[in-house]
């Protein structure tokens, strides 16, 4: 995984150079920030490359790891998954070969959603562009809701809001799987220090948000969710590999 980590760092450096050329926009204006960034990438490289770069490195490698995590934590093959922040289809593409059930992928950026729909090639699946925090689904429908590299770029308040939305759309006994950054992980601390350095140099960076495990516990208790597990980003999901970010799994009481 060392080569993958190096590739991801190179992709992030390239993405940061693009961001540095953009005029400042409030990081809490999620749609504007993400749409503008993707548009800038599309203007500098081939479309497919821009779609993959927009959500970070390791497009082909990380997607199967995410599928492995969802299967490990109990997503039924004929179940219903809601993929919040589906991006350009890093998860949807490999998942399409295994999941026979329903899927909803949502994202703020129309170009990313269109690309995800194209490469998943599942006309029975639903992809939708959203304009704000929220999950466009009725109560009690999904078996699992996932957030990969989503809460890493939100405020704590926005993350809590999304977890509450996930609870609402889950069936009793359904699970939430989300990745996050935490200071106890040396690799994650490096992300923080790089962000500090970029701030000093006045380079525009995405909002990299860290969540303590203790905070996750408080959130789960306040939301009435059960803690299933928190695992390190270094833990391997065989045979796919490791995600890099830490993973938390919460359960809606039956």
Order of helices and strands: HHHHEHEHEEHEHHEEEE
Query: Uncertain runs with pLDDT below 50, 5 residues or more?
Result: 18-27
State the shape: globular
Query: How can the largest sheet be summarized?
Result: 7 strands, mixed
Question: Could you name the CATH class?
Answer: Alpha Beta
Distance between the termini: 38 Å
How would you classify the helix and strand content by structural class? alpha/beta
Our estimate of the beta-strand percent is: 15-25%
Detailed description of the structure:
The protein contains 9 helices and 9 strands. By secondary structure, it is of the alpha/beta class. The protein has one domain: Vaccinia Virus protein VP39 (Rossmann fold), CATH 3.40.50. Strands 3-2-1-4-5-9-6 form a 7-stranded mixed sheet, with helices on both faces. The model is unreliable at 18-27 (pLDDT under 50).
Give a summary of the structure in a few sentences.
By secondary structure, the protein is of the alpha/beta class.
What characteristics describe this protein?
254 residues; alpha/beta; seven-stranded mixed β-sheet; two-stranded antiparallel sheet; 9 strands; 43% helix; globular
Annotate the secondary structure layout.
Blueprint: H1 2-20, H2 30-42, H3 47-53, H4 59-72, E1 80-84, H5 92-95, E2 102-107, H6 110-120, E3 126-129, E4 142-147, H7 156-169, E5 170-180, H8 186-200, H9 213-223, E6 226-231, E7 236-237, E8 241-242, E9 246-251
Parallel strand pairs: 1-2, 1-4, 2-3, 4-5
Antiparallel strand pairs: 5-9, 6-9, 7-8
